[in-house]
């Protein structure tokens, strides 16, 4: 299914250091100055909180005004348990979706060239998606990975180096998983809740390891075969229409690292809107 080659670069330790949280400094002075310090800190926190509330209110207003009925929007969110379940009717059970409901998923990023276009297209239509990130791309582009989540999308992992895991020894498979989980945790501060196999090529070793680690396996219901560089927007839109007509609902696989997909996404989202499809967003507990 997924034959896009990921852009994989060597991990950069500086980025990992940037991702680590600064430690809380203990107050160096005695009780009197500690009291003063505490009161100053309290006032500052209160001021910051007030500013944050105003900004949140302004953002809420803007978003409510922009996300009217002319937009695709996000119909509802399904919050999945952090457990070793597996979804996607191509290989596993289907998600509990109604006819006409789709989940948008994007693989192989983050890509500095293409992911920002995908984020803009999603934001313009108020649609939320799930990104399956390649570990080494996360390490190379930590800010872009964090931006995806800060804009309300969810993220899982898609291996560390995008190998066909079936061609690796069990030890190599587990090593790739370990590295990709570490890359995710270094940037997001939490364990990945979900995993999508490169090329959807599942192996017994990995399925068992993911189950043990309570990581959900995210397969797909349909795709648009978006890995050919010459694909035009019209071709991708037609493939999406054909897949929707065939499946009727489910998880759609696309690739945010793929240039033609990033370019076509405004049209693809319009196809969903015109055909009356509703976007369901996946989150994890
Ligand atoms: Zn992939």
Report on this structure.
Pfam families: Polysacc_deac_1. It comes from Duganella radicis. Residues 100-280 form the NodB homology domain. By secondary structure, the protein is of the alpha/beta class. Helix content is 45%, strand content 15%. The protein has two domains: 30-66; 69-284, Glycoside hydrolase/deacetylase (TIM Barrel), CATH 3.20.20. It is built from nine helices and ten strands. The strands form two sheets. Strands 1, 3, 4, 5, 8, 9 and 10 form a seven-stranded parallel sheet that branches. β3, α3 (115-124) and β4 form a beta-alpha-beta unit. α1 (13-19) crosses α6. Residues 2, 4, 107-108, 158, 162, 198 line the site of zinc ion (ZN).
Using DSSP, what is the number of strands? Answer: 10
Number of helices: 9
Give the C-level CATH assignment of the largest domain.
Answer: Alpha Beta
Q: How would you characterize the largest beta sheet?
A: 7 strands, parallel
Query: Could you tell me the radius of gyration in angstroms?
Result: 21 Å
State the CATH superfamily name of the largest domain.
Glycoside hydrolase/deacetylase
Low-pLDDT segments: 1-38, 49-62
Provide the succession of SSEs.
Answer: HHEEEHEHHEHEHEEHEHE
- Oligomer description: single chain
Second rung of CATH, namely the architecture of the largest domain: Alpha-Beta Barrel
CATH fold topology of the largest domain: TIM Barrel
Percentage of residues in strands: 5-15%
Region (Disordered): 1-44, 149-169
Protein name: Polysaccharide deacetylase family protein
Pfam families: Polysacc_deac_1 (PF01522)
GO molecular function, one term: hydrolase activity, acting on carbon-nitrogen (but not peptide) bonds
């Amino acid at each position: 299914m997924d034959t896009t080659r990921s852009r994989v670069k060597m991990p950069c330790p500086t980025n990992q250091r940037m991702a680590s949280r600064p430690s809380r400094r203990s107050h160096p002075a005695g009780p009197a100055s500690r009291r003063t310090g505490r009161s100053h800190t309290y006032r500052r926190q209160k001021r910051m909180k007030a500013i944050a509330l105003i900004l949140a209110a302004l953002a809420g207003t803007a978003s409510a005004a922009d996300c009217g009925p002319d937009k695709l929007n996000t119909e509802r969110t399904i919050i999945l348990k952090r457990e070793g379940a597996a979804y996607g009717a191509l290989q596993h059970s289907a998600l509990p979706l109604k006819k006409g409901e789709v989940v948008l998923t994007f693989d192989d990023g983050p890509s500095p060239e293409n992911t920002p276009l995908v984020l803009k297209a999603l934001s313009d239509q108020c649609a939320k998606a799930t990104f399956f990130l390649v570990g080494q791309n996360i390490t190379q582009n930590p800010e872009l990975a964090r931006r995806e989540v800060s804009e309300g999308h969810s993220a899982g992992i898609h291996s560390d180096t995008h190998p066909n895991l079936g061609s690796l020894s069990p030890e190599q498979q587990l090593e790739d998983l370990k590295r990709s989980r570490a890359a995710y945790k270094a940037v997001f501060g939490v364990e990945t809740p979900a995993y999508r196999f490169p090329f959807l090529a599942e192996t017994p070793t990995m399925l068992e390891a993911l189950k043990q680690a309570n990581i959900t396996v995210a397969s797909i219901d349909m795709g648009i075969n978006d890995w050919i560089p010459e694909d035009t927007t019209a071709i991708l839109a037609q493939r999406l229409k054909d897949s929707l007509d065939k499946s009727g609902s489910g998880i759609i696989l696309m690739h945010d690292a793929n240039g033609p997909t990033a370019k076509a996404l405004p049209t693809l989202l319009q196809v969903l809107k015109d055909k009356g499809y509703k976007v369901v967003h996946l989150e994890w507990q």
